[in-house]
Amino acid sequence: MTPNRRELIAGGAALAAAPAFAAAPGFVSKRPPVAERRFVSKAVEAEITRISKLIADPELRWMFGNCYPNTLDTTVLSLGEVNGKADAFVITGDIPCLWLRDSAAQLRPYLHLAKRDPALGRLFRGLIGRQARSILIDPYANAFMQDPTARTNLSWALKDDTDMKPGVAERKWEIDSLCYAIRLAHDYWRETGDTTPFDAEWKASARAIVKTFREQQRKEGPGPYRFRRSAPEPTETLYRGTGLPTRPNGMIHSGFRPSDDACLYGQFVPANLFAMTTLRELAALSNAVGEAALAQDATALAAEVEAALKQFGTMTLPSGKRVWAYEVDGYGNTVFMDDANVPSLSGLAYLRCVDAADPLWQRTLAACWSKDNPWYFEGKALTGIGGPHTGPGQVWPMSIITRALTSTDPVLLRNSLSMIRGSHGHTGFIHEGVDIDDPTKFTRDWFAWANGLFGELIVHVAATRPELLRETFA
């Protein structure tokens, strides 16, 4: 039986140990030796030292020292040039391919440092360029090969019934993949003021994003995308290659969720909210680089999606509470659930799609973190949200981190830090799914997105509630 993404579990790639991290006595650093680190940023190293001094709990401090630089230490597979422009290839961790979503999210925790470190800025520019070129290969693909002329070597994707192009590693159509590419570009520009990455190639990729979103509004049929896979899990394939029917209403149809699992109903609400938000960010950036027509198109599309979300994107729970739906089909069918992968309903405020105080989102968040959500679990060690990707009884620490990133409740933040601290299964890293009763049972020992997200949380707490980092946890 060939392995697939959900089977890359504990016991995979081991990280070489480095000398003990000085700020965490009694704990040995799990970072690779300096000579073996893929990318070193002076600004990031200084940030590790600064934040570590604020963390009283030695185990939490040790985890931060391991996790925060994990993307740079281990996943920057290359940083070079293509046609005289920076090029960076950033893998997810235990899968040696670039996911648009993951790679953008992996660099995000370092964004506030990009202006301080020219090499780090070049890494951001390199990834923006690589993502643009990847989107121009195929805007429907979610993952790409390092060699843009190579065929996929992912065992689970070799026989996919879809239009696989050279350079594509996996071709699961996910709205959020393109949203994350926009978010990376927009936030880099906002943070640095640098417009050099946004050349003709990037502008072409941005136009391809808007074109693809419009195709998947499915106003004139399902569009060009088809995907089928022979797999034991129904979440790995799409019904008849296009998914269950949706009624056109202005929302964008997605084949798959950010978990890489198939949507039940293709009008996936969290991703549509993310698209609405990032299209407006694309408009702002496009105006800044002289692309007024693109800005107008993105703005108009965002307005269409927003109107459809207001009319079709909510539902009433059996309790009578009105909440955001997870997925709808435009025919009146809805599903309520939440998945740990972002965009999620729980992550809407983190993604700046809603105001954290918005009553509709607060009701939705409360429902997600309750038995109203079939993927919410409570155990001896962890309470949180998982998803179909790893199955029942598995909480993703990512869900706990995402919730904490938009909370101002000190009790919730304290409990979140405590649970995350207890979730690593003696490894010092954040994992994908973790058994709710036994943290030594987990999937993916090398998952850079989750590691970086934890680091982002600690930096956020240091800036907003530093007193919590002065506490120790049992």
TrEMBL record:
Single Gene Ontology BP annotation: carbohydrate metabolic process
Swiss-Prot/TrEMBL keywords: Signal
Entry-linked Gene3D superfamilies: 1.50.10.10
Residues spanning the membrane: none
The keyword Transport is assigned to this record: no
InterPro entries: 6-hairpin_glycosidase_sf (IPR008928), 6hp_glycosidase-like_sf (IPR012341), GH125 (IPR008313), TAT_signal (IPR006311)
Region forming the signal peptide: 1-22
Record's protein name: Tat pathway signal protein
Organism annotation: Sphingomonas pseudosanguinis
Lineage: Bacteria, Pseudomonadati, Pseudomonadota, Alphaproteobacteria, Sphingomonadales
